Amino acid sequence: MKRVLVIRFSSIGDIVLCSPVLRNLKNKFPDLNIDVLTKDSFASIWKNNPFIDRLLVWEDPESKKTWKYENYDLIIDLHNNMRSKRVKWIRWDCPSISFKKENIKKSALVSTKNIRFSASPITKRYDKLLNSIGIPTDDLGLDFYGIEALPETVILPNRFYAITLGASYKTKQVPIEKYVEFLSTQNGDIPFVLLGGKAEIRAAQQIKSKFPDLCIDLCGTLSLGASANVVNRSLVLISGDTGLAHIGAALGKSILWIWGSTTPQLGMMSPQKPNGGDIISMEVKGLNCRPCSKLGYTECPKGHFKCMDHNPTVWLENLEKLTASALA
Known about the structure:
Low-confidence stretches: none
CATH topology of the largest domain: Rossmann fold
Distance between the termini: 45 Å
CATH class of the largest domain: Alpha Beta
């Protein structure tokens, strides 16, 4: 093969999860030219990736001319939705392969809560897709090359923890009250840096007001790449099921991964980086309403949000384990 088109339009975590595909393609075919087709709002996540030759943007007319008329040997569809199917229909002249979304299994898991319907990890499905055309895959974990410099006004301490406040859905977002309970267990030796977008500014302000000497609030001030910089410098990342958690896994960070309405059995858990930090998953076990969705909801369907009723003392114990490992 001389040139392929890889399609993945969104979103942050999903794009990071498919990063090994590009690496394994280049490992097999060093001279292969890889074009990636994505949406404009997620183009920065692919930034500086050495395995990409051209980044094509769905909304860009010039990019459209490229993917419509370029002589591709193969189209690799890592999104498998209506938009990517449209691309393959337009480019009917090109061979294509698509990964399996396993939506039936995931829907069965949500409906029955029976773990025998657990989905395969998405990274393993990507491996299987490449293996099906004779391309070997490695176990080197995820990649992220989009780290950006911090603003000159941001000065971080030598040691700190990072906390992500946002999430794509409310039921995947750790409630403010839980972070307040958790921070109340701290002795103040190591500060916490709060990360999030403009939507999380008010939540960060509430937390900061309660722990002014313990928290550094950067919500709404950093780009995704700069936030990744903070994650990369942190001792441990504390996060719900968010894009920054996947970026943290790609950077080999120790992560306290806090699950709510979704579960690792839906197949979206990041693999650990070889020789990287540990990842500890925190879940509220024994709920007959979890997982309630493949993606999440804007509000808890039951109204009680018990899936986020975590014990902050257990968080503290696990944070201490991760900290000891990171400092070893």
